[in-house]
Amino acid sequence: MGIKYSERYRVPFYESDAFQNIKISGMLAEALQMSGVQSNLLGRSDVWLAEQFNYFWAVIEHEIDIVRLPKFNEEIIIETEATSYNKFFCYRNFWFKDLEGNVLVTSKSTWVLMDRETRKVERVDDEIVSPYESEKVSRIVRPHQFIKKSELENAKESSYTVRFSHLDMNGHVNNAKYYDWASDMLDLDFHRIHQPEKIFIKYNREVRYGEAVVATISQADLVTRFSINDDSAQIEIHWRKIEKD
Amino acid sequence: MGIKYSERYRVPFYESDAFQNIKISGMLAEALQMSGVQSNLLGRSDVWLAEQFNYFWAVIEHEIDIVRLPKFNEEIIIETEATSYNKFFCYRNFWFKDLEGNVLVTSKSTWVLMDRETRKVERVDDEIVSPYESEKVSRIVRPHQFIKKSELENAKESSYTVRFSHLDMNGHVNNAKYYDWASDMLDLDFHRIHQPEKIFIKYNREVRYGEAVVATISQADLVTRFSINDDSAQIEIHWRKIEKD
Predict the structure, then answer these.
(1) Shortest CA distance from B191: residue in chain A
(2) Model confidence over B112-162: pLDDT tens digits?
(3) In terms of pTM, does the model score above 0.90?
(4) Which of B1, B2, B38, B203 shows its CA 20 to 30 Å from the CA of A36?
(5) Cα(A216)–Cα(A214) distance, rounded to whole angstroms?
(6) Cα torsion for B176, B182, B184, B188, to the nearest 10°?
């Protein structure tokens, strides 16, 4: 069991969508920020990691289960734990809970260490991860099997432009942006009566400034599949219909 | 003098740009959020305002002076004060300070109360603003004189699409988004060697979902002027060249 870290968080208006629910992209960004705060506290900041190893952390996968989305101005608890790791992958959970401790959202994420120069995945060094007290395991969690872009049925495309405001500090498109690009392919009327209940996100390749972005969508009943730039990122969203009040 | 409210704030990675500076749009969103927190504390929440008067607050103008932009992971103090008001306008300042109290950024903003049904500006009622202890004044602060779109020289246009993720809880384009639309018309190389030192933003009309957005830019030396949708929003940015290290 890894060391847990939690913070209270009040959903601000600028992370709330048109239906007063927390934005998924904002929720993911906040989660990543919190893992950074924990790393700082454990003496494993991004600066330390860059100076000691010339590495950086990259999240490559999210699996998100949503019981209920936190609402605007709701105070919640975000909890995180680096649960386990093996040769190449580190696993970290995030829980978004109400103040009674009920889990609203769970996100299981997979991380890799990458070299800042070669942009290649590196082996997990015990010195880097030992302060998190997560379990060293041999098994690799079987990743979700996405349907490849080439096999998506009834696919439709939209194009986007990578702009300055989309970039994160590494000069790449901010991870959370992919979700927006995907979700924005569905119109307001769809969002009005659907909410995500399960989301899989896989980041395969970085998208850089100046690249054209082509997003592909395929919809079957309550499952939508997205591919950004030929599977550079893959997103699968399972929706539930919202009951009318 | 109004009651001051301040909070510590650490610049998160998702509000940091490619050069590790705080994003202007994120800074504006955080400022607005803080004014909401203060209003809550003073018993004048948005819910109260809606229930008692059927009004909401709208910021119509920002004038921002930047000495230095807060950096990623820097801990700063954000301070705010509703300074004064007259028949129709309320004035509120925000200061972004380092921990020694040096002012890094100042934002002077102008607010109006709008009716939720008619979307018209309403008179400022003393009952609404008295808890802020800001000064009642007769004079109206002369707004910044923007150059109209029709008079912009060497204007170039870009088009955007309003998408679900751009909407705020009112179903309109999030205010902060206009700055991104404007600033994104300048490319990464420009941003690499320029930083804003003075920004004027005027919001004249809401932009709604489904509207086509045409952004116009006009550049003269170190001043760029933007008009979003025929002056629905006007932005003027004065840049300084960044000295090389």
Answers:
(1) A164
(2) 999 999 989 999 999 999 999 999 999 988 999 999 999 999 999 999 999
(3) yes
(4) B38
(5) 7
(6) -120
Q: What is the DSSP letter of A186?
A: S
> How many C-alpha atoms does A146 have within 13 Å on its Cβ side?
27
**What's the pLDDT score for residue A141?**
87
Contact call for residues B90 and B108 (beta carbons, < 8 A): no
| Facing residue for B183 by CB, picked from A23, A165, A176 | A165
B20 neighbourhood in chain A, CB within 8 Å: 169
Counting every residue written for chain B, the total comes to: 245
B174 — contact with chain A (CB < 8 Å)?
Answer: yes
Tokens of A64: 């998100």
Beta partners for residue A212, in sequence order: A161
Within 10 Å of residue A102's Cβ, how many Cβ atoms?
9
| DSSP single-letter state for residue A20 | S
Whole-number pLDDT of residue A169: 87
In Å, how far are A21, A23, A194, A238, B213 from A243, measured between CA atoms?
A: 15, 20, 9, 16, 33
Burial of B53 (0-12, 13-18, 19+ CB in 10 A): middle
- ipTM exceeding 0.95, yes/no: no
Query: With 0-12 CB in 10 A as exposed, 13-18 as middle and 19+ as buried, what is B21?
Result: buried
Strands B75-85 and B135-136 turn out to be parallel
